Each structure stands twice: as C-alpha cells, then as structure tokens.
C-alpha cells in the first residue's frame, strides 16, 4: 500500500511540473483583526506570473482597519513600512516610487476585494515577506512568500 501511494505521488509530481494556471492564483482573506488567514504563501517555480486576490471580510472602514498586501524582500520590510506610515492613506501607506516594493494591492476596507497580477521574474531564490503597510499592522500582519 505504501509503495502504491509513493508511485501515485511520483506520477502526480511528473504531470505537475508545468504549473496549471490556478496554482499561480492565490486568495488571501482578512477581516477586522490585524491578521491574514494564512501565515505563509507559496507558488510553484513554474509560475511566471502570480494573481493574488485580497478579500476583506470584515465590516470596519478602510480608515480604521484598512489592509493591503505588499511584497518585499524581508530585509526591506521594516523600512518600507516606516516610510509607508509617513506617506499616508492617500498613498495606501506606501512610499511612492520605491522599487523595493515588489508588488502591492491597494488598501481596502470591510466588504471590499482587490486583485493584482505580478511577475515572478527576479524573485526566485530571494527571502520574501508579504505584509500589510497600514500603520502598526506590519509588526504582526505578515508572512513568508516562497517560490518553490
Ligand atoms: Cu492591515
């Protein structure tokens, strides 16, 4: 039985070397707390693009419990978040024109949803973290993003 399972796993691995489009699509939900529903995300290395949807299932407005999804190298997270707080809500709490921001959604409030598509070019092998840049959220509202 174990051998059969191993064979099945092997067969599955060989047919999935070419990523299906839906493996490159991620949905992250959030709500009226400073948290995403997932503390890590990954996509297969065969994804040339990732489509990510952020859904805010809470009811609080963007001004008090806004969330976004921002991707950067882990080492740049804190500085981007600090500068983002200074950039203010009209800039989605992100420093404008900062190319250390690898991808980001807009800031949304309860009941809203937003989708972005970004290229994985140059991201493979880097230590990446996603976070919310709403002031104060980034310290707890974050997770590892891996391209495997
Ligand atoms: Cu947030």
From TrEMBL:
**Is Glycoprotein found in the keyword set?**
no
One Pfam family from the record: Copper-bind
Please name the SUPFAM superfamilies in this protein's record. Cupredoxins
Chief localization class?
periplasm
Record localization: Periplasm
Keyword tags? Copper, Electron transport, Metal-binding, Periplasm, Signal, Transport
Can the keyword Iron be found in this entry's annotation? no
N-terminal signal peptide: 1-19
What are the Blue (type 1) copper domain coordinates in residue numbering? 23-148
Protein function: Transfers electrons from cytochrome c551 to cytochrome oxidase.
This protein is called Azurin
Instruction: Supply the source organism for this entry.
Output: Salinivibrio costicola
């Amino acid at each position: 039985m174990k051998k059969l399972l191993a064979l099945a796993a092997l067969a599955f691995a060989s047919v999935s070397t070419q990523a299906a489009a839906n493996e490159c699509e991620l949905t992250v939900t959030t709500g009226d707390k400073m948290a995403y529903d997932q503390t890590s995300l990954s996509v297969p290395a065969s994804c040339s693009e990732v489509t990510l949807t952020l859904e805010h299932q809470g009811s609080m407005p963007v001004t008090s419990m806004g969330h976004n999804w921002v991707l950067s190298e882990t080492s740049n997270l804190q500085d981007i978040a600090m500068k983002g707080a200074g950039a203010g809500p009209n800039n989605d709490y992100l420093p404008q024109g900062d190319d250390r921001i690898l991808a980001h959604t807009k800031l949304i409030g309860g009941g809203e949803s937003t989708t972005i598509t970004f290229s994985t070019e140059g991201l493979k092998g880097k230590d990446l973290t996603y976070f919310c840049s709403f002031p104060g959220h980034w310290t707890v509202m974050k997770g590892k993003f891996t391209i495997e």
